[in-house]
Amino acid sequence: KRKSRYSIHRGVIVGRREEKKTIRDLVNKVPNTCVKEKGTIILEGEQGIGKSLLCNYAMKLCKRKKILICHGEGGRFQQNEPLYPWRSILKDLFGITDIFSRESTPVIPQELSDALKKTVSKSLHDTLPLLNDLLDEQYFEENEDQTAMSKEDRVFDLTHLIKHLLNEFSLRSPFVIIIEDLHWVDNDSLSLLAQVTRDISSILVIVTSRTPEPCKNLSQTSRTSHCQLQALPEKDITDIVLNVLRVTSLPDAISYLFRSTHGIPLVAREIALELLESNVIQVQDEKVIVTGNLSDMNLTSVSAMINTKLDRLPSGQQMVLKVASVIGFEFSLETLLKVYPFENNQKKFIHGEIDALQTLGLLRSAHSEGDPIYTFENKRLLEVVYSRLTFAQRIELHEHIAVFYESLPNSVKRTDQLAYHWTTVIENTKDISDSIILKAIQYLEQASAVAAIAYGADIARIWREKALQLTTKLPDSATKEDLSSRLTRLLHNATDSGEQRLKISLREISGVGGPCQ
């Protein structure tokens, strides 16, 4: 069944009246066929200023009007993956995932293929298999010519195809594209986005960015609204705190603390929660009572406040977060249970710990059916939790996760994940067996071969360079010399034409023996 991969953030927008009006006015015009130009909204501002809350506001309006939302976002670790945010946008557009719905029917590859062939012109039918690169499943069968295409050619044809699909779909039914964290989006995605805002006026596009640079090439028309989010005034910050604490007023003894927020809503929210959870204040009859020593508060940064919050969690909840932080921002319950470093009689409590962490607003459910999927509330929380792991704990967990991923069927096994976890273990362990190093090199090589097809030379080169670095940890031998020579040759061949490079890569990788095959 279709998965609901996005849940609306908690939180009430305080202030931002002009920005909300801009969003409301343009969303209201999306279903109106008489309005040909739907417009572009750019939400720009520093971290924690409220960009995501405004996106959530737009999503709620769309949901109310039953307007399809196609949502994508950039990622710090996906900046070099071509067209990364368009993956989820296409899945939303094709009905593979749904941003709100919890139930739907499966998407059958043949049905999707037939539907898209009716949508696009015959001249583009041969490019449809390239969508496999972005849909994470083989919905279309590729021929030899398509398999041998260079990364640059694949991305070029994909960009043209996606633009055509967006235009055709927009003529049939209105939808909104939302892309968050544009500052972490690859250049190919930015180029496609610029073309969409310039050439397809029938789609409302909403983007967020911390910096102005990614937005410079977006079409600037009379219907482009550039909202530069400024710090909130003191009154709005106070209203945020009142909303978080559910009180009607603040005593002077704590009001001054919120002047250090610099008008950033996220900081105000964290300070309010920190005061409450550390028992410095209590709420009684909608009034704040100071019960602790304010001088003991560590409010130097959001990270410090998160650390203080984590310190108060029971050990079981802390361990769940720590294990999950090694898996990643999004993690499945199955993976967590498999790698959790305790006996089975202790694992039975994990469900309760996760429920408690969701109640506390530290985790949230991402999927509603099948194997439960969870995400951290935000990426800052993930980074802080991971930093709290001891050196030995990180290595042990990375190894547990790698071993679990190796046990998965080949159909769902991801060599890039295996390469990442095993490489992390090797780079942080003094005495490591040669067999593990060789295994990691094989995973890195296979990941580079996949990347050469899906992402191109730049990503493939990163994997190969990492593999070459690992060969230095091997003792001098004919095997080490052969590996170093072959990897050096592969890196050199990365400058050749895409087709030739791919043939060399596949030929070389097919000759590697070991557990990866």
UniProtKB/TrEMBL annotation:
<dbReference type="GO" id="GO:0004016">
    <property type="term" value="F:adenylate cyclase activity"/>
</dbReference>
<protein>
    <recommendedName>
        <fullName>Orc1-like AAA ATPase domain-containing protein</fullName>
    </recommendedName>
</protein>
<feature type="domain" description="Orc1-like AAA ATPase">
    <location>
        <begin position="13"/>
        <end position="202"/>
    </location>
</feature>
<dbReference type="Pfam" id="PF13191">
    <property type="entry name" value="AAA_16"/>
</dbReference>
<dbReference type="InterPro" id="IPR027417">
    <property type="entry name" value="P-loop_NTPase"/>
</dbReference>
<dbReference type="GO" id="GO:0005524">
    <property type="term" value="F:ATP binding"/>
</dbReference>
<dbReference type="InterPro" id="IPR041664">
    <property type="entry name" value="AAA_16"/>
</dbReference>
<keyword id="KW-0067">ATP-binding</keyword>
<keyword id="KW-0547">Nucleotide-binding</keyword>
<dbReference type="GO" id="GO:0005737">
    <property type="term" value="C:cytoplasm"/>
</dbReference>
